Prior knowledge:
The chain has one domain: Collagenase (Catalytic Domain), CATH 3.40.390.30. Strands 1-2-4-3 form a four-stranded mixed beta sheet, sandwiched between helices. Helix content is 48%, strand content 20%. The protein has helices at residues 20-31, 34-37, 42-46, 59-70, 106-112, 117-132, 140-159; strands at 3-10, 49-57, 78-82, 96-105. The longest helix has 20 residues, at 140-159. The chain is α/β, with parallel strands linked by helices.
Amino acid sequence: MKKTNLSVLNNYKGFKYKSKAKILKIFNGIINEPSIINKLNKVFIDAEKFSFDIVFTSDDEIKAINRDYRNIDKATDVITFSLFADDKNSFAIDNEINLGEIIISIDTAKRQAIKSYDVEIDTLITHGILHLLGFDHQTDEDYNFIVGVQNKIIEDLYNA
Protein backbone atom coordinates (compact mmCIF):
# COMPACT_ATOMS: atom_id res chain seq x y z
CA MET A 1 0.00 0.00 0.00
CA LYS A 2 1.34 3.41 -1.00
CA LYS A 3 1.48 6.20 1.58
CA THR A 4 -1.13 8.82 0.73
CA ASN A 5 -1.65 12.26 2.23
CA LEU A 6 -5.22 13.40 1.85
CA SER A 7 -6.76 16.76 2.61
CA VAL A 8 -10.56 17.05 2.75
CA LEU A 9 -12.07 20.53 2.78
CA ASN A 10 -15.75 20.98 3.44
CA ASN A 11 -17.22 24.18 2.01
CA TYR A 12 -20.78 22.85 2.27
CA LYS A 13 -22.69 23.63 5.44
CA GLY A 14 -24.21 20.58 7.06
CA PHE A 15 -22.08 18.02 5.21
CA LYS A 16 -19.15 16.09 6.60
CA TYR A 17 -17.57 13.17 4.78
CA LYS A 18 -17.46 10.31 7.25
CA SER A 19 -14.21 8.53 6.54
CA LYS A 20 -10.83 9.48 5.11
CA ALA A 21 -10.00 5.78 5.45
CA LYS A 22 -12.73 5.01 2.90
CA ILE A 23 -11.23 7.50 0.43
CA LEU A 24 -7.81 5.89 0.89
CA LYS A 25 -9.39 2.46 0.32
CA ILE A 26 -10.90 3.77 -2.93
CA PHE A 27 -7.53 5.21 -4.01
CA ASN A 28 -5.63 2.01 -3.23
CA GLY A 29 -8.30 -0.07 -4.95
CA ILE A 30 -7.86 2.00 -8.10
CA ILE A 31 -4.06 1.98 -8.20
CA ASN A 32 -3.98 -1.78 -7.56
CA GLU A 33 -6.58 -2.56 -10.23
CA PRO A 34 -4.80 -4.63 -12.94
CA SER A 35 -6.45 -2.70 -15.80
CA ILE A 36 -5.07 0.53 -14.31
CA ILE A 37 -1.54 -0.56 -13.36
CA ASN A 38 -0.32 -1.16 -16.90
CA LYS A 39 -1.60 2.28 -18.00
CA LEU A 40 0.22 4.30 -15.34
CA ASN A 41 3.55 5.91 -16.14
CA LYS A 42 6.82 4.78 -14.56
CA VAL A 43 7.22 7.91 -12.41
CA PHE A 44 3.85 7.15 -10.83
CA ILE A 45 4.58 3.46 -10.29
CA ASP A 46 7.96 4.20 -8.67
CA ALA A 47 6.64 6.90 -6.33
CA GLU A 48 6.29 5.99 -2.67
CA LYS A 49 3.89 8.75 -1.57
CA PHE A 50 0.93 10.57 -3.04
CA SER A 51 -1.16 13.53 -2.03
CA PHE A 52 -4.40 15.01 -3.28
CA ASP A 53 -7.20 17.23 -2.03
CA ILE A 54 -10.97 16.83 -2.08
CA VAL A 55 -13.26 19.83 -1.71
CA PHE A 56 -16.99 19.41 -1.07
CA THR A 57 -18.97 22.43 -2.18
CA SER A 58 -22.28 23.78 -3.48
CA ASP A 59 -23.72 24.08 -6.98
CA ASP A 60 -23.14 27.84 -6.91
CA GLU A 61 -19.43 27.45 -6.17
CA ILE A 62 -18.81 24.62 -8.65
CA LYS A 63 -20.75 26.56 -11.30
CA ALA A 64 -18.39 29.53 -10.82
CA ILE A 65 -15.35 27.24 -11.05
CA ASN A 66 -16.77 25.53 -14.15
CA ARG A 67 -17.42 28.93 -15.75
CA ASP A 68 -14.04 30.42 -14.83
CA TYR A 69 -11.85 27.43 -15.76
CA ARG A 70 -13.83 25.55 -18.39
CA ASN A 71 -16.04 28.27 -19.92
CA ILE A 72 -19.13 26.22 -19.10
CA ASP A 73 -21.67 28.29 -17.17
CA LYS A 74 -23.51 25.55 -15.29
CA ALA A 75 -23.10 23.38 -12.24
CA THR A 76 -21.60 19.91 -12.59
CA ASP A 77 -21.04 17.00 -10.23
CA VAL A 78 -17.23 16.82 -10.15
CA ILE A 79 -14.31 18.86 -11.47
CA THR A 80 -10.68 17.85 -11.19
CA PHE A 81 -7.48 19.81 -11.44
CA SER A 82 -4.78 17.30 -12.19
CA LEU A 83 -1.28 18.50 -11.38
CA PHE A 84 0.53 15.32 -12.29
CA ALA A 85 -1.26 13.54 -15.15
CA ASP A 86 -1.83 16.63 -17.28
CA ASP A 87 1.87 17.54 -17.44
CA LYS A 88 4.13 15.50 -19.71
CA ASN A 89 7.12 16.68 -17.64
CA SER A 90 5.68 15.42 -14.36
CA PHE A 91 8.06 14.35 -11.67
CA ALA A 92 8.06 13.31 -8.03
CA ILE A 93 9.64 15.47 -5.33
CA ASP A 94 11.24 13.39 -2.57
CA ASN A 95 9.44 10.42 -4.15
CA GLU A 96 6.03 12.08 -3.54
CA ILE A 97 3.53 13.03 -6.23
CA ASN A 98 0.89 15.71 -5.71
CA LEU A 99 -1.93 14.49 -7.92
CA GLY A 100 -4.14 17.58 -7.67
CA GLU A 101 -7.62 18.44 -6.46
CA ILE A 102 -11.12 17.00 -6.77
CA ILE A 103 -14.10 19.34 -6.31
CA ILE A 104 -17.50 17.73 -5.73
CA SER A 105 -20.89 19.46 -5.66
CA ILE A 106 -22.99 18.10 -2.81
CA ASP A 107 -26.13 19.65 -4.35
CA THR A 108 -25.64 17.80 -7.64
CA ALA A 109 -24.69 14.57 -5.87
CA LYS A 110 -27.96 14.71 -3.90
CA ARG A 111 -30.00 15.20 -7.08
CA GLN A 112 -28.37 12.44 -9.10
CA ALA A 113 -28.04 9.79 -6.35
CA ILE A 114 -29.66 6.56 -7.52
CA LYS A 115 -28.67 3.86 -5.01
CA SER A 116 -27.87 6.16 -2.08
CA TYR A 117 -26.32 9.50 -1.33
CA ASP A 118 -23.18 7.83 0.15
CA VAL A 119 -22.72 5.64 -2.93
CA GLU A 120 -23.03 8.70 -5.19
CA ILE A 121 -20.42 10.66 -3.22
CA ASP A 122 -18.03 7.68 -3.30
CA THR A 123 -18.66 7.22 -7.03
CA LEU A 124 -17.76 10.87 -7.65
CA ILE A 125 -14.61 10.50 -5.51
CA THR A 126 -13.66 7.42 -7.54
CA HIS A 127 -14.34 9.24 -10.80
CA GLY A 128 -12.27 12.21 -9.65
CA ILE A 129 -9.32 10.03 -8.65
CA LEU A 130 -9.37 8.38 -12.06
CA HIS A 131 -9.17 11.83 -13.66
CA LEU A 132 -6.26 12.78 -11.36
CA LEU A 133 -4.47 9.67 -12.62
CA GLY A 134 -4.90 10.83 -16.21
CA PHE A 135 -7.94 8.86 -17.31
CA ASP A 136 -10.50 10.77 -19.33
CA HIS A 137 -13.66 10.01 -21.28
CA GLN A 138 -13.36 11.80 -24.60
CA THR A 139 -14.37 8.65 -26.51
CA ASP A 140 -16.99 5.98 -25.86
CA GLU A 141 -14.21 3.45 -25.29
CA ASP A 142 -12.55 5.67 -22.67
CA TYR A 143 -15.90 6.39 -21.02
CA ASN A 144 -16.73 2.68 -20.83
CA PHE A 145 -13.30 1.95 -19.34
CA ILE A 146 -13.64 4.63 -16.64
CA VAL A 147 -17.20 3.66 -15.74
CA GLY A 148 -16.22 -0.03 -15.64
CA VAL A 149 -13.34 0.61 -13.22
CA GLN A 150 -15.46 3.00 -11.18
CA ASN A 151 -18.31 0.48 -10.87
CA LYS A 152 -15.91 -2.30 -9.85
CA ILE A 153 -14.30 -0.14 -7.15
CA ILE A 154 -17.70 0.90 -5.74
CA GLU A 155 -18.98 -2.68 -5.86
CA ASP A 156 -15.87 -3.91 -4.01
CA LEU A 157 -16.22 -1.09 -1.48
CA TYR A 158 -19.85 -1.80 -0.63
CA ASN A 159 -19.76 -5.59 -0.89
CA ALA A 160 -16.57 -6.16 1.11
